[in-house]
Write a structure and sequence with these properties.
By secondary structure, the chain is an alpha+beta fold. It has helices at 5-14, 20-26, 35-47, 53-68, 299-305; strands at residues 2-4, 32-34, 71-74, 97-106, 112-122, 124-132, 137-142, 154-155, 164-168, 175-180, 190-193, 203-206, 211-213, 216-224, 230-237, 245-248, 269-270, 275-277, 280-287, 291-298, 307-308. The strands form five sheets. Strands 12, 13, 14, 15, 16 and 21 form a six-stranded antiparallel sheet that branches.
Length: 310
């Protein structure tokens, strides 16, 4: 992989390990540097220490940890897409890659990039970003900033007022939204939805990236109610001001029925993304972490069933 010096230093500072040692090493590297170049500079300093050896050892470990969390995956172009599987690679992912929320993103110049936010899990969680243009080469990158310290990040499919926008769940309870000039750095968020109805009373979050319609952004949500039952609901955000909810469902769109309740994580239906095809909302969803299925609903019928929010 190739790293950019300034974002790498910013992430080290955010981790609380940016110091004179990291500055010494990075100042010897070009703006775009490789993993091999980074390790070479670390080994040169290790061989001829200029700082406390204990301090150096800890700093080297943190720098390698960050470098190992940002990598590339490439597949053979002639392999079927079903054979292109991304497995955990870094130590941060040793217990799993979870809840990837893919979105087709349109840049201002019309260029299409596919992004996915996911959770790298190893006792602690680390929000990560997958980036690809062709589903052959994938860049795996860390998300940075005070506002990306939890799960459930979901990018909007285009910029809004010239800024990237993303849904999130910083506090493990409410639906948040945040904006940034840099897709890799997110510093502030605000709550747009709090638990209010019985079926979502314990926790709410998003079920993937917003879907654009003429009436507004459709956002599928998950709600956790009594007996830890997970249901899927829906809200509608204003197209130009997505901080505002303009309509919502009062009841779940999907709830686990008798045959979907038993599994590794019981009493759950959950999705990480949907799409609109031929005026139908197509929702792939998981049942109690044991099976998966697909549900569909006509978009117009869904919108008509929502009630307006003042």
């Amino acid at each position: 992989p190739v790293y950019k010096r300034n974002p790498f230093q910013l992430k080290l500072d955010e981790m609380g390990v940016g110091n004179e040692i990291t500055a010494h090493i990075l100042n010897q590297l070009p703006e775009d540097f490789t993993y091999t170049e980074l390790i070479e500079k670390i080994e040169i300093l290790r061989a001829k220490p200029q700082f406390s050896e204990a301090h150096q050892k800890n700093t080297f470990g943190e720098m390698r940890w960050l470098a190992d969390s940002n990598y590339e995956v490439s597949f053979h172009p002639d392999h079927r897409i079903s054979e292109r599987v991304i497995f955990p690679v870094s130590k941060n992912e040793s217990r799993g890659i979870e809840d990837a929320r893919f979105v087709q993103f349109f840049n201002d110049n019309g260029e299409v990039v596919y992004y996915a936010t996911y959770t790298a899990y190893n006792n602690t969680i680390l929000p990560q970003l997958i980036e690809t243009k062709d589903f052959i080469k994938f860049n795996i990158l860390t998300l940075n900033g005070k506002a990306v310290q939890n799960k459930g990040m979901a990018l909007f499919p285009r910029k809004i007022d010239g800024r990237y926008a993303m849904l999130s769940r910083q506090d493990g309870e409410n639906n948040h939204i945040m904006f940034s000039d840099n897709i890799y750095f997110w510093q502030r968020s605000q709550i747009i939805q709090e638990p209010g109805l019985p079926w979502e009373f314990m926790q709410i979050g998003n079920c993937g990236s917003p879907l654009e319609t003429d009436e507004g952004w459709i956002v599928l949500t998950h709600g956790v109610g009594p007996m830890r039952q997970y249901c899927i609901g829906a809200i509608l955000l204003d197209l130009e001001k997505p901080t505002k909810i303009i309509a919502r469902l009062d009841e779940p769109l999907l709830a686990p029925h008798e045959k979907e309740r038993e599994g590794y994580v019981p009493n759950v239906v959950y999705s990480c993304g949907a799409l609109i095809h031929n005026n139908e909302l197509v929702i792939p969803y998981a049942m109690s972490d044991i099976n998966s299925g697909i549900a569909t609903v006509v978009v117009k019928e869904l919108l008509n069933y929502m009630h307006a929010v003042a």
